[in-house]
Amino acid sequence: MTTILGCIADDFTGATDLAGLLARSGVKVNLRIGIPDTPPTDTAAFEVIALKSRTAPVDDAVAQTRSALKWLQSAGATRFFWKYCSTFDSTPTGNIGPVAEALMHDLGTAQTIYCPAFPENGRSIFMGNLFVGETPLSESPMRDHPLTPMRDSNLMRLLAPQVTKPVGLANRLTVARGADALRARLAELATQGIAHVVIDAVANDDLYIIADACRDMPLMTGGSAVVMPLPALYLADGTLSADAPRATTPDLAPQTVLLSGSCSAMTRAQVTAYPGPKHRLDPLDLAQNGPTAALDWLKSIDLTQKPLFYATAEPDAVRAAQSQLGTAQAGEIVEHALSKIATTARDFGARRFIVAGGETSGAVTQSLGITRLTIGHEIAPGVPWCFATSAGHPIAITLKSGNFGAETFFSDAIQALK
Ligand SMILES: Nc1ncnc2c1ncn2[C@@H]1O[C@H](COP(=O)(O)OP(=O)(O)O)[C@@H](O)[C@H]1O
Ligand SMILES: O=C(O)[C@@H](O)C(=O)COP(=O)(O)O
Fold it and tell me: Are the C-beta atoms of residues 140 and 251 closer than 8 Å to each other?
């Protein structure tokens, strides 16, 4: 069917987050890993392309996104969404602003919006300032993110150095007055030449108003949550027909493997809370011996017991590994080991994969040779089960952002897929 909304996400967990929120409507959502090298076929009303561009060089991120835009246009899309992290992960040089300006240029549009709010996961925006729970972004753990340390909470100040055109705000007082008031504010800002408008949102009700006001813009940008209301809006006015194909859950063997390379505080708690069998990966041991011990353990265990392989470690241990191996090298060694475990587990019959961490998800997805995902039901806000094919086998896979999910996430994921 013709694509109604074409979405481009800057990382894999972000893409499944976005696709999961769109799929809440029950409408089919396709997720493509990277830009497909063939013309669109079997397209859905909502198409999401997952890039790995969040921390890529600006020119590379812009080029990748423009190619993704072209593919989505050839699928019939006329409205587009640029998805970045709900914590606005970026630096003064990009990539959020430069990519948005390139998309605006290609779409011939003079204004777009920025709304990374995700109230269900504690991300809210008030007077242009982003909060993580009750904490300003710049005082949250994102302050010390290794690649994109967020040392300011004000989205206008964060965005301004990334773009060439003026930045403005539509604040919560306007949003609270409804979609017409917000449209009027956007028009007023447009007459002042404001190209980039940050919009406040502290609750889901705000997102419904924003989506309603902005639904026909050629380009919207934000975290995942601001597009969540769009399917219902498109169904209500007939843009999307009610008989759009729905996602179905395939029958899958119970063999399961869990793989965690995220070291976030939430993932550490989730690994600790997991009651199933666990095997720890030590980057220093992996550097010396490769994943031999992990693979031996994998061979010895019945995959219906749902073993967890984790490199997840406390900050001191991570720093120690990084100082001995180098930061990039430590990460690569772990990602390589988890990828090898994933493909071996698949060859031993695993058909359900639970993966924690953005970079880790990219590595595991690529090693499994996945190019396309269909989105199923959510396990936690922003973390859906997805369905794909790997080496000819139907599989289920979930890609969890480091920060998302409850402490019981791993058990929740197992329970959620019967
Ligand atoms: N014990 C460890 N020591 C050093 N690096 C690690 C360790 N465990 C995991 N890593 C690496 O840390 C990175 C975690 O990033 P990622 O998977 O994106 O998680 P998150 O989504 O929480 O940021 C990966 O590159 C992973 O390989
Ligand atoms: O918007 C979000 O917070 C997530 O969708 C996301 O992008 C998470 O990124 P990682 O924490 O790097 O997985």
Answer: no
